[in-house]
C-alpha cells in the first residue's frame, strides 16, 4: 500500500515544463513568495515566455501543478552556460526555486531540484550550481549539494 | 604628467570582446590559471565561440590584450538571464574572471569587472551577481559588490 500511495502522490505532483497557460494558474503569485514581483500583463508574460523558450533546452523553467486545485505550487529554473574552460565545458545554473508555503513538507522542492539537476546532467554539464541563503543551505545539502563559494551582488535599482 | 601616463596606460590595456584570433594569444592558457582546462582544438574553440556569439549581447566574453607582448592577460564573461520575477527582470551573471599572475597590480581586474558590470546595466539588468572564494570577496567589495548568499555546487564528473 505504501508503494501504491507513493506512486499516486508522484502521479499527482508531476514536474513539467512551464506553459503559457500557467500564468492563470498562479505562477506569478508563486514567484511573489520569493521576491518582488508586480502583476505582469499577458503580453509581457508571453513575450518573456517566448524569449526564454527560444533558448530551448538551454533555459528550462519547470513547475508542479496541484491537479486538485489547478494551482502552480512549485517552480524552479535552470539555464546552461557554455564555457571555454574545463575543455569547453558546460555549467547548469539553478535559479528561482520556490514551493508554495501551503504545500511544504511534501518533498516538492526536492522534486524540482532533481528535475533541474537531471536536466543539467543530460545537457552534458560538469556541474550544477545555485545561490541560496545560509538557512537554506541544509536543504540543498540533502539534495546532494555542497557549499563552495560566496555570492557577491551589485544592485542597479 | 600623471594624467598623461594614466591615459597612456588606459590606451595600452583596453577591454574588448573576445575574438577567435585570441586563441593563439594565450586565452586558453590564461583560463588554465583559473581551473582545469586542457588544450582545446581550433575546431572545438571555433564551435564554442560561435555557440556563445549566437547569443549576441546576452553572453559576452571580454579580454585585455597586452599590446607589447600580444598576449591576453585578463578576461571575464557575463551572461544575461531573462526572468519572470522582478517584473520580467534581467540578471547579469559574471563568470570566469582571471588576470595573468604576471600582470597583477595594474587594476586590470577592476577594468574587466567595470566592463562586464556596465554591460549588464546597459542590458537593463536590475542586478549583477557572481560567485567567488571568501578570499576574493574583498576585491569585489572594492568593485562595489556586497556579499549576499552562499553558493552550493553539485559535480557530475
UniProtKB/TrEMBL annotation, chains A, B:
Cellular compartment(s): Endoplasmic reticulum membrane
EC number(s) recorded for this UniProt protein: 2.3.1.4
EC category: transferase
Pfam family, one: Acetyltransf_1
Keyword terms, alphabetized: Acyltransferase, Endoplasmic reticulum, Membrane, Transferase
Protein name in UniProt: Glucosamine 6-phosphate N-acetyltransferase
Pathway it works in: Nucleotide-sugar biosynthesis; UDP-N-acetyl-alpha-D-glucosamine biosynthesis; N-acetyl-alpha-D-glucosamine 1-phosphate from alpha-D-glucosamine 6-phosphate (route I): step 1/2
Family recorded in the similarity comment: Belongs to the acetyltransferase family. GNA1 subfamily.
Subunit record text: Homodimer.
Transmembrane segments: none
GO biological process: N-acetylglucosamine metabolic process; UDP-N-acetylglucosamine biosynthetic process
Domain of life where this protein originates: Eukaryota
Species of origin: Juglans regia (English walnut)
Main location: endoplasmic reticulum
Keyword Cytoplasm: no
InterPro entries in the record: Acyl_CoA_acyltransferase (IPR016181), GNAT_dom (IPR000182), GNPNAT1-like (IPR039143)
Residue span, N-acetyltransferase domain: 14-157
UniProt catalytic activity: D-glucosamine 6-phosphate + acetyl-CoA = N-acetyl-D-glucosamine 6-phosphate + CoA + H(+)
Membrane topology, as annotated: Peripheral membrane protein
GO CC annotation terms, alphabetical: endoplasmic reticulum membrane
GO molecular function term, any single one: glucosamine 6-phosphate N-acetyltransferase activity
Amino acid at each position: 500500500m505504501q508503494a501504491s500511495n507513493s506512486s499516486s502522490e508522484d502521479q499527482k505532483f508531476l514536474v513539467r515544463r512551464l506553459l503559457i497557460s500557467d500564468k492563470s494558474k498562479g505562477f506569478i503569485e508563486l514567484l511573489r513568495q520569493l521576491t518582488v514581483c508586480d502583476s505582469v500583463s499577458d503580453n509581457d508574460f508571453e513575450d518573456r515566455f517566448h524569449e526564454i523558450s527560444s533558448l530551448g533546452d538551454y533555459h528550462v523553467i519547470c513547475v508542479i501543478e496541484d491537479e486538485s486545485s489547478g494551482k502552480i505550487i512549485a517552480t524552479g529554473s535552470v539555464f546552461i552556460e557554455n564555457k571555454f574552460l574545463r575543455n569547453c565545458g558546460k555549467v547548469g545554473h539553478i535559479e528561482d526555486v520556490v514551493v508554495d508555503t501551503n504545500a511544504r513538507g511534501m518533498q516538492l522542492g526536492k522534486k524540482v531540484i532533481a528535475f533541474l539537476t537531471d536536466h543539467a546532467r543530460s545537457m552534458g554539464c560538469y556541474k550544477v550550481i545555485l545561490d541560496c541563503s545560509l538557512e537554506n543551505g541544509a536543504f540543498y545539502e540533502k539534495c546532494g549539494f555542497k557549499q563552495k563559494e560566496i555570492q557577491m551582488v551589485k544592485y542597479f535599482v
